[in-house]
Write the structure tokens for this entry.
Amino acid sequence: MRSSIIPLTLLVGVLSLTACGGDKPADTAPAGSAPPANATTPTDSSAPVAAAGAASMQKGQEVYGRCIACHQQNGAGVPGAFPPLAGSEWITGPVARPIAIVLHGLQGELTVKGTTYNGMMLAYGTGVAMTDEEIAAVLTYVRSSFGNSASAVTVEEVAKVRASTAGRSTPLTQKDLEALP
């Protein structure tokens, strides 16, 4: 029994490293092509998308290609393994929280929409540092997609969280997130 668990654990670890911390984005659709049928995009022109600008949203959608393996194209996550971004209080709540997750990763138990997950997310961009612009774009996209309607994320907000958490060398926990403003 133990010998079958080890390869599965290794596979999950490799997929997590590749999907959440890979050094390049997944292939994206050619410019001008229609989004996949199951893609969810905001439809309200007064939503944060308008404030963020179309170019930023496009960049955010491209960067989100790195997240799809775990959080899925529609932001629903994988039940029992990877939490949803759609409707997540951690995504739509105070902006410092998702920024810190992207910058430092996350480990341990995390309750999302009443369901507890216990896993590990590497810092986004592990191996290749992400710019503040990339982080702002992807979080603006996620906070404005999948039925979410939270505010856009600015480069200045990312820079502020990056500076205030610069000494951190380990992934965050739910308790750490709760302590953020």
In short: Residues 2-23+40-179 form a domain with the Cytochrome Bc1 Complex; Chain D, domain 2 fold (CATH 1.10.760.10). The CA atoms of residues 2 and 8 lie 10 Å apart. The longest helix spans residues 2-21.
